[in-house]
Amino acid sequence: MPKDTNDQTGPRHVAIIMDGNGRWAQQRNRPRLVGHHAGARRVKEIVRACPDVGVKYLTIFAFSTENWKRTQSEVSGLMRLFRRYIEREARDLLAEGVRVRFIGDRDRLDRKLVSLMDSLELLTSHNEKVHLTIALNYGGRDEVTRAAKRLAYEIEQGRLTHKDVDAETLGRFLDTHFLPDPDLVIRTSGEARISNFLLWQSAYAEYEFIDTLWPDFTAAEFARVLSGYGVRERRFGAVPA
Ligand code: IPE
Ligand code: IPE
Ligand code: MG
Q: Which of 58, 92, 130, 184 is least enclosed by beta carbons within 10 angstroms?
């Protein structure tokens, strides 16, 4: 049953650091890219599960601004995978009511990929069942830096003054300006770090660090993780009522 009302107890916006593809492949003596392909297949299952578990916004970390440090063959394999994913999944995403948007710096991505990203955003722009945001060449520091630069430019042009600079205004310059803050951030593969993901937006998010490697993360496990969320008390700095 889709839940999008104020009686919602589960998280409305879940963000996932999909980690562990490389180790999954390594355990099978296969190249790292095999793990990335297996990981991409899981994305579909998790996106499809969202309406049933009341998740309206799903944000997934696909490639960080630091992932360029990997070997050229892994990076180009991942870029090829992203292109193929968009080409192959566009129809199903459209049919399933998923609105897809991308966050991150597009300037360093190849033209063909960026044009596929733009088309998918446009194609699915009238959907509203699930809002899927894919972070591609995304880094929290990079995002805040780009936002600050654009804000400075607005001031330089005289459209804003320094007095307009507050958290709300800065938020409007972030890549995520169209998204609510995440309620829950999940990271798979046992690593308990943020790795530059949604730094600003996760100020009051809950975190779940799961040992499962991303290619093994099923919809059933996703539902289990979400069910644990309802019992937490989020205080946002206040004293409980
Ligand atoms: C996450 O899996 C996917 C990307 C960062 C693109 P990894 O590739 O980081 O997998 P591990 O951490 O090496 O196992
Ligand atoms: C974070 O995973 C980035 C993505 C999942 C896309 P990494 O594997 O790149 O993070 P570190 O290097 O372990 O911090
Ligand atoms: Mg990793």
A: 92
- Ligand 2, residues at Cβ distance < 6 Å: 17-19, 61-64, 67, 191, 193, 195
Q: Is 212 in the pocket of ligand 1 (CB under 6 A)?
A: no
Domain boundaries, the chain: 13-139+181-228
The superfamily CATH assigns to domain 13-139+181-228 is Decaprenyl diphosphate synthase-like (3.40.1180.10)
Of 19, 137, 183, 196, which one is the catalytic site residue?
19
**Taking the CA of residue 211 as centre, how many other CA atoms within 13 Å lie in the half-sphere pointing to its CB?**
0
pTM: 0.95
| Tens of pLDDT, residue by residue, the chain (241 residues) | 344 444 577 899 999 999 999 999 999 999 999 999 999 999 999 999 999 999 999 999 999 999 999 999 999 999 999 999 999 999 999 999 999 999 999 999 999 999 999 999 999 999 999 999 999 999 999 999 999 999 999 999 999 999 999 999 999 999 999 999 999 999 999 999 999 999 999 999 999 999 999 999 999 999 999 998 877 888 899 998 7
Q: In the 3-class helix/strand/coil scheme, how is 106-153 assigned residue by residue?
A: CCCCCHHHHHHHHHHHHHCCCCCCEEEEEEEEECHHHHHHHHHHHHHH
Of these residues, 67, 105, 127, 216, which one is catalytic? 67
